[in-house]
Amino acid sequence: MKKDSYKLILRIVLFLYMFLNSNVIVNAQSNDNFRKLQKNSLDQIHHKRSLSKINPLQEQQELGVNDSIFKLFDVDIDLTLGEISLDMSWGDPVKNPQIRGNKASNLYGPVRYNADGSVRWHRGFDYYAPKGTPVYSVGSGVVSLVQKHPDYGLCVLITHKRPKKTYYSFYAHLSSVLVKYGEDVHKGTMIGKSGTTGNAYDLTDQEEHLHFEYRTSPKHSDRKQANPNAILKTKFYSADPKNKWQANVGVVKKGGQSLFE
Q1: From the CB of residue 113, how many other CB atoms can be counted at a distance below 10 Å?
Q2: Does residue 55 lie in a domain region?
């Protein structure tokens, strides 16, 4: 147990060292801030994780570390960016969308489990997307964040202002980004290509994916994601939502058109 604790402390010290030496400023939103964020990478932490087995207690401890990382990589989003759009149409982030592995555990909700058997929420949809798959903005908006995050990898946040509310779409594990901070986009604008960055670094073949989130708050640490079915054109549901083991359950795909509120 002491050995595991020492390993965890070493990881935390490594993270703090890398973070402090990256000179990342996360208190305000600016182009310079985003250039610095894009240069900051903690892929080495994930590489070290892959070299050792993690027991349930250590996993819970590392979940706490991840929460701290989310806060450290939060950036104040400039809510003055972009204009209110009257385009109420909504699309999908990839063409012909399919859920990764056709498994309900890759949908949104309490569909996964930790090593100790406790329920773990998945906060978005994982779309099957081989590396290099084009990724599109799901609606009109403005690019509010381009960041390299230790878990999400290369990621993009788009702010969608509507007459009654503001919504946020989030795209993670990208291999490249084709848009810039502050750039206006429309439904169907290609914003980048899918990849295996962040904690998806060791995934291959059928496991490669785009992680997509629909958020009601822009910050990572707020954990204010909602079910993407509320807004996306193509919706996915568990074939057996009452089954405890959603990893063994398939998904049901339904097309349609949703509107922002």
Answers
A1: 15
A2: yes
Q: Place 66 in a pLDDT band, splitting at 50, 70 and 90.
A: low
- pLDDT tens by residue, 69-89: 556 666 667 777 888 888 888
Q: Classify residue 31: in a domain, yes or no.
A: yes
Q: Is residue 223 part of a domain?
A: yes
The closest alpha carbon to 192, from 172, 207, 208, 206, belongs to 172
Q: Is the residue at 257 inside a domain?
A: no
pLDDT band for position 260 (50/70/90)? very low
* Closest-CA residue to 198 (of 60, 19, 40): 40
Question: pTM above the 0.90 mark?
Answer: no
List the domain range (segments joined by +) for residue 50.
2-72
